[in-house]
Specification:
The protein is an alpha+beta fold and 119 residues long. The protein is built from four helices and five strands. The protein has a single domain, classed as 2-Layer Sandwich (Muramoyl-pentapeptide Carboxypeptidase, domain 2).
């Protein structure tokens, strides 16, 4: 994303992403909508990743993080997890991964849609 695009984003700043330059503008706009519906700040724990970083993180070679259309967000309790997943789905995202301390979601249309998986 370029600096001008960030002016359109209400709830996030480039400094909240490790690799803001890798992020899809369309995905960050949806992420902003998720944040609005969720009603609480989201802590991004993983965003776009270069290949080497993706390998170190144990990411798959086809990870949506490589395309800048995925994030992992910290989520520590079941009620927050429910509310976040509801907001994600209401914003049209249908690829969700659930871990004990985080929620992954992405907009990789090259992959199966309407899926939820566990880590």
């Amino acid at each position: 994303m370029n600096d001008k695009n960030w002016e359109e984003i209400k709830h996030f700043k480039p400094s909240e992403f490790k690799h803001p330059e890798m992020m899809s503008f369309e995905f960050v706009k949806i992420l902003d909508q998720v944040r609005e519906k969720f009603g609480h700040p989201l802590k991004i724990t993983s965003d776009g990743r270069p290949e080497e970083e993706n390998e170190k993180a144990g990411g798959k070679p086809t990870s949506a993080h490589l395309k800048g259309v995925a994030v992992d967000t910290s989520c520590m309790d079941s009620r927050s997890r429910f509310d976040l997943i509801r907001a994600i789905i209401e914003c049209g995202i249908t690829r969700i991964g659930i871990g004990k301390t985080f929620v992954h979601f992405d907009m990789d249309f090259d992959k199966d849609q309407r899926v939820i998986w566990l880590y």
